[in-house]
Every structure is written in C-alpha cells, then in structure tokens.
Amino acid sequence: MGRDEQVEEREVLDSIFADEITGRNCAEYREISIPLEVVSQHEEPEPVPILLLTVTYPEAYPDSPPDLSLSAPPDAPKYSHLDIQDDKARLLAALEPTIEENLGMAMVFTLISTLKDSAELLISERQAAAQALKDVEAAKAEEEENRKFHGTAVTRETFLKWREKFRGKMADTEDRRREEKEADDKKRRVKVEEKLTGKQLWERGLVGKVEEDEDDGEGDDNAVPSVHALKIDG
Prior knowledge:
Layout: H1 3-16, E1 21-22, E2 29-35, E3 50-56, E4 67-71, H2 84-93, H3 96-102, H4 108-150, H5 156-195, H6 198-203, H7 206-218
Antiparallel strand pairs: 1-2, 2-3, 3-4
C-alpha cells in the first residue's frame, strides 16, 4: 500500500471516528480517543474510561505493522478497574495476533475494535473478581451469624461422641449415688444399733454376737456374764 492508500485509510477513519480523532492536519499519525462501554458497580456512576491510541504509519505499512502507543487523556480521573499506565503493555500485547492476521491489509479500524473489546473484557473480569470476593466475604459473615442461632450441625459422628460422653457421665453419677447411699445406710445402721434396748438386741440376735466377740477377746469364760444373766430392758 502506497502513500495514497494510507491517506485513503486515514480519511475512512476520519469519517468513522469524526469526534474521536485528533491530529487531522498531520499526515504521519492519528490520535484516536476510544471511550469504553462498562457497567459501573458503584452507586454513583463513575466517569467513562477513555483510551488514547496513537497510530503512526511506517513507510512499509501495511506490510509492516503500524507503531502504536497507548495513554490516558490529560487529567483523566482514575478508574477503579483500569490503570492505563499499568495495563497498556498487556493491552498492546493483546493486539499482536490481530496484527499478524491483517498484515498486508488496512488494519487500524480492526485494531481499534480489538483494543476496545480487550479493555472492556479486562474491566469486566476485574469487576467479576471483585464481586466474587465480596460474595465470599458476605457468605462467611452470614454463616457466622447463622452459627450463633443454629449452633453446631449434628452429624452421626458428633452424635455418637456425645452419646458416649453422656453415658459415661451418667455412669459416674450413678456410681457416686450408690456409694453415697451405701455410706449413708451404714451410718444409719450403726446409729440404730447403738440405740437398741437389750430386748431389741436379743430379738435381732445381736446379744450372742456380742458375747462371742468378747469371749474371743478375753479368753476367760467367767469374764463375761452368760446371756441368762443379762438384764433385758423392756
């Protein structure tokens, strides 16, 4: 393509991007303003991000690719999901396949369309990632809040552990009650025996036991009076 063809392409671009192109008096390059179409995720709408693509035609264009430069408009506000200074290398690299496919043909219009799509896709992916992070954080917060009201979910494993622990506690409690009851019964039995009359001792067969215990202790037949000599109260 000669100079005439390059001029023809620039004239076509001038007609398509009538309000977006600056530098019409320069035959060497065109600076094209590319507004991006994005959906704002903020309550208050953000300013539309704009890319400035500078196209310089080498003498061998389109058999060799145009020189491209990417920048932001002067004093442009910062956009939350796109930083042209940081992202321009990535965006320009995304144009390489399109350039290779269109060598030998007028390609600037195709490059503008591809650049616009790539930038909008990048913003959309970052918006989706930010929203996914918010959703995860919101889900965690909701789970924590629900846990306060529902407690720990019961599974078969947790139930079996609880049942084993509960049965162990019940067995320990029952053992303590039995031991306490046996000790209490023993104390009561001793107290009752201490208060029995001679007649009650005789009726319960405790008199003979007392005599046998004393005989074994003394070893003297005359030391303890026989049961007939006992005076029975009552």
